[in-house]
């Protein structure tokens, strides 16, 4: 039912009905008739002639009297006096007019026009003095008008004071139309084409009287009537409406069908179009528009009035909605394959009890690159078909980047995972696209957060699929808590800047000890964030996010700046003090890294040799050549280089060979176990030997007890860092302890 209510046809018909009830479609009908009657002209009825310009001010009352005699003598079939009768004074002229009227035949009718549109009561008509007109008939003229005061219809007769008066048009039409009902003027009658003779010419004897003989003659003044307007023509004389009315009554079926039959017809045709296929459907649309535009004209030729207003209204609403739908469909369709795209899925309400799955196809761009463009769609369609066959889903959504999305019934997690594994197995067989064969490998992202908005779920599944693809995993499940984290991660950029500004982000300094001299020889600067609402955030938690948010540069430069200032302060005290800062693997290949580092130490007036740059996460080095180039340059500037977390990266040994470095930092995961594990001890011992052989200093981090420290010392490790020797602390605290001679704190001296 709801689906039907959203159909453009139903909405268009309901809108048109409402428009009809509220007369909202009237402007359409008005424009339609105005245009139609500008183009469509029929000759005026030849039986009617109008004598114009009968005005006492111009002709004088005596002139009017003479005119009546002239017209009478021409023997018209009937006369209608349609001018303002004065003749009520005792002047000679008035006497003449009274006498002239008295000489008129008994069926000469007096026309009385209403002084208000849409009103048909006694107050709207100024009836003439019976003494003047005798017992001659009175005919009326009054109009119902539209919202722009254009005449639309008139009753055939009007009852005033219990007397039924016919209107002029019905009398002109020989009584057709009867005394009940309504008629609709035929505006095809061109008002300019109604035969007229100026009164002045008759009086001057310049017009042949034969023009009036046998005709119905309206002797018309100029000022009567309400000024109801005439479709297709501007400001015609009031009698034009009566003539048009008479013309309409002469058509075979002078009736009105209102606007509804045409609306019904349009509705039927549009419904039929909706059930038809392409070429026929377009023909039916065309036929509907043609019917709505042409039928009212054709019917009106028969006298039948049929308004196109509501049907036009429905057509406009319908085509507007169809265009909108078409546009949405285009947006929601992937160009190459014709499959609906992710947006289409995001915009739909997802079925209840479903999981959203996105499949990411590995190396999709490469596959596309090898295929001719016309086969791109085919490739997507084949993949979608295979997914459909394996999952039973009928609607597979596709985005050009090689992602396919659909919904799965929400099974228990283990079942869902094995279902997807099975689906993955379906892709073991290669795809055959044209002459090409491809192995296809797909990775799934799964969202099980029922109740969350469709768009969010689709994006979550998409993000998980990408993650699965990057990590080489078959399926990645989107964890709901990440949703809560998302806004925080996405606004990290601004928050980091704010943290740097207001001091929430600060540096802790952890001492590094020289094991040969048993004194503090330096410190590592470690970043800290005390977030006002989230509390302290561990660097591991936000460094990665800062990298993702593209904010790691600002953070790194800020750290170096602060650490350089601290290094200067401590070095000013005398003994050489080496300051270590961490450089994220993401930043090592940045083009402006070396220049900026150089600028910072220059600004702080610190010898770069006092700064050790610890390169972390070396396994994720992006552009190796640029990285090696940068590190070499940093070293040429005088910075010391250290390979952090040595032994954890996938290829630490390879890096040791490649990267220029001065120092090796043994990761605490090895260091922590050397006391208990012979193996780890052997690894650390040989690593120290290797590093020394390569001319590197060795720093052990993560020393938490005296035994470990003693063991490392015995192994020949150069420097030591760890909670046992001092925790990271604010600079003021660190400086105080340093001044107090940190050496004495541990009885190792
Ligand atoms: P890292 O460079 O390996 O730093 C040493 C980490 O070991 C520090 O953790 C330190 O607090 C911790 N640590 C030191 N001694 C001990 C110990 O005896 N036991 C244990 N369990 N831990 C010890 P922290 O400060 O949480 O930093 C973690 C990581 O965050 C750092 O590892 C480094 O990779 C990164 N990081 C910290 N500051 C920065 C920075 O300014 N820039 C960049 N790019 N990374 C940073
Ligand atoms: Mg470090
Ligand atoms: Mg480390």
In short:
This protein is α/β, with parallel strands linked by helices. It has four domains: 2-25 and 259-331, no CATH class; 36-251, no CATH class; 342-488, Reverse transcriptase/Diguanylate cyclase domain (Alpha-Beta Plaits, 2-Layer Sandwich), CATH 3.30.70.270; 511-523 and 552-727, EAL domain (TIM Barrel, Alpha-Beta Barrel).
What is the fold's blueprint, element by element?
Elements: H1 2-5, H2 8-21, H3 26-39, E1 48-52, H4 56-73, E2 78-82, H5 92-103, E3 109-113, H6 130-133, E4 138-141, E5 144-145, E6 151-155, E7 157-160, E8 163-166, H7 168-172, E9 182-183, E10 196-198, H8 199-203, E11 216-220, H9 238-249, H10 260-274, H11 278-301, H12 309-331, H13 342-347, E12 354-361, H14 364-370, H15 376-391, E13 397-399, E14 403-409, H16 413-425, E15 431-433, E16 436-438, E17 442-447, H17 454-471, E18 475-477, H18 480-490, H19 492-502, E19 505-514, E20 519-531, E21 535-537, H20 539-548, H21 552-571, E22 578-583, H22 593-603, E23 611-615, H23 624-637, E24 640-646, H24 652-658, E25 663-666, H25 668-671, H26 678-693, E26 697-700, H27 706-715, E27 719-720, E28 729-730, H28 731-739
Residues 524, 582, 614, 616, 644 line the site of one magnesium ion.
